[in-house]
Amino acid sequence: xxxxxxxxxxxxxxxxxxxxxxxxxxxxxxxxxxxxxxxxxxxxxxxxxxxxxxxxxxxxxxxxxxxxxxxxxxxxxxxxxxxxxxxxxxxxxxxxxxxxxxxxxxxxxxxxxxxxxxxxxxxxxxxxxxxxxxxxxxxxxxxxxxxxxxxx
Length: 152
Description:
By secondary structure, this protein is an all-alpha fold. The chain has helices at about 10-20, 35-45, 55-65, 70, 75-90, 100-115, 120-140, 145-150. Helix 3 runs antiparallel to helix 5 and helix 5 (about 75-90) packs antiparallel against helix 6. The protein is globular and about 50 Å long. The two termini are about 25 Å apart.
């Protein structure tokens, strides 16, 4: 049974294996849609046509944040917007994956900003519960060790 909503090739499985992430299903080479490791990483990060890519998910997160701007603050929204702009511009550069550090910095600033600017405790708690549930979901999908699951 496949838990991931996107196709993975054998090269992608090797990347997960190299990073000590177990994949709870077998992958055959007939689904090999990527040319090599670099192509997998570039497509997974920057492909705006793939709804599962990082840029697509960040774009949807930005769209959702626009809807709740009054709750999360314009300052928090601006960090998401900067992260989205960096990831979109990063694809065009000579070292696109290096730009990911800047994206991570903006996302960390976003989460810090939520702690500072979301005044309603209930709203802040709902946001945090959603974040932790998403992480826990990934831990279960990738069969992470029990102790990591319990920390969440």
